[in-house]
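protien #1 (seq + structre)
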Amino acid sequence: AGWFRRLLHKPKLSSVASSLDTSSSASSSPSSSSVESSGYSPSMSLVRPIRLSPISTSDINASGSARWAKSYDVCICHSEVDLELVEELVSYLEGQPESFRCFLQLRDAAPGSAMVTELCDAVQNSHCWVMLITPGFLQDPWCKYQMHQALAEAPLANGRTIPVLKDVDRKDYPKELRNLYYIYMALKENSFRQIRDTIMLYLQELCRSSASRME
């Protein structure tokens, strides 16, 4: 009799699914007001929501962390005409609690060294690469060279290459990056935060993977 009463009071599967669908859409879909205020649609930005893992900042900053296997957390690839914006981004990232280590070519390249050597070393010694794709980027052969070096370093990307579009039509998005979601820079503050969260997500996954191999 007891199990029969419980069966009668068991919620219907359709109502459970409906409630789950409702809560899921509410949590994962941005409101129309937020989309309108930001100036871009979800399809023009990172489609996969960024969910930071339980690995803490202290774990990432620990002396034995896989983070320290490379000299830089992120290499910024940009055109010289966009230097002012890039300096703002670098200042933002380096001012975060994680103190991200950024490679900025005009600041960090060794005087007298070959440009090609510096670009290749920066790509190889960075965990992530931000590609600030602007009209200036598309016209700069050195930017394209660095983009190709990054793709050669990690052909499947795996979160390491972070394209950021600004003042560029979707039709002009480099064909080499079309298998990657990108950040569309409409509101600078939001875009900076997305870049920061993407770098952090990669470092968390890197540390978790390293810890798993050691177990």
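ok now protien #2
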Amino acid sequence: VKSEGPKLVPFFKATCVYFVLWLPTSSPSWFSALIKCLPIFCLWVFLLAHGINFLVSHRSASRILAGLIFSAVGDAFLIWQEQGYFIHGLLMFAITHILYSSAFGMKPLDLKAGLLMAVVSSSCYAFLYSYLSGPFTYLVAVYIALIGFMGWRAVAGVQLCNDLWTWTKLSACVGAMLFMVSDLTIALNEFCFPVPYSRLIIMATYYAAQMLIALSAVETRDEEDFRKRS
């Protein structure tokens, strides 16, 4: 934490700027898009600060960086969601979840966690289904499946009972759960009913999720140190 914390200072500052300015969503602009994406840009810098060689030699870290890049593009699209760019943002974040799932990997498999996430994802879609129409009936189903799969791979990495976990795996798990909370709030607010303080809930959980997932990228370095000690 002591070594990674200072690298996250720009992210925390950029996040504070977003919440302090709290630009209205009714008048989208490139400036509001910049302010919204700035914390994610800072997470790019956080990963790049570990060195290009580190990113090139560790696929999980480079995939998380790629996910952050697609996230920023998705954020920009959602600034203009009322102008018809909501689906574009949905697509960008779908790609993000695929990249994060790939970064978390398929080991350990943990089918129990997979079953739990399948039940949670199915329940969410079952609730949303009656509010959906047109292409969103299928697009939301695919999106929920992707983020549920991402959540499964993040949860599966935390083997508390077997004492096979690290703080970065736990970081990925909590980050994935917060991402799901953020996206579920978006879905409820967009398709079902107005959620009180929806924007605050969405952005607070989203930024926290992205930060924690970015932190999990240093997992590969922890694993190398563990192998050397072994």
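Residues 167-192 form the longest helix (26 residues).
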